[in-house]
Amino acid sequence: MSIEVGNKLQGKVTGITNFGAFVELEGGKTGLVHISEVADNYVKDINDILTVGDEVTVKVMNVSDDGKIGLSIRKAVDRPERPERNYDKKPKFNKKPARTAKPAENFEDIMAQFLKDSEDRLSTIKRQTESKRGGRGARRG
């Protein structure tokens, strides 16, 4: 079997570095499995997963012009494909019903409610700022 992109091959780990593992393939050619292509989960130390002399199945990811071969162990494992998602359907959201406010009868009622709310807010702010300043009548002179 030739070394072409997409082929799955058997190989033997010949060397381990901090960035990946070198795998000897058929015909004496050597390729590199980058540390990110060793397992599906995060690999901090490749020595926890591979050792020199291990027989592994790899998938050829790329072959560069200068002869470097990029390999992957995690993509060589056959997994069932995920079912396709149907993007034609709109997602369903649980919307809360809008608050229904009782409409005011006229402008004077609306203005009276606004003034009451405004006074309440101003008095709350005034109380909070005075307590931070030391209260009333405590001026130094």
Automatic annotation (TrEMBL):
Entry-linked PROSITE patterns: S1
Chain residue ranges for the region called Disordered: 80-107, 120-141
One Pfam family from the record: S1
GO biological process, one term: translation
Domain S1 motif, chain residue ranges per copy: 6-74
Compositional bias segments (type: Basic and acidic residues): 80-91, 120-133
Family annotation (InterPro entries): NA-bd_OB-fold, Ribos_protein_bS1-like, S1_domain
A GO molecular-function descriptor: mRNA binding
PANTHER family, sorted: 30S RIBOSOMAL PROTEIN S1 (PTHR10724)
Name of the featured protein: S1 motif domain-containing protein
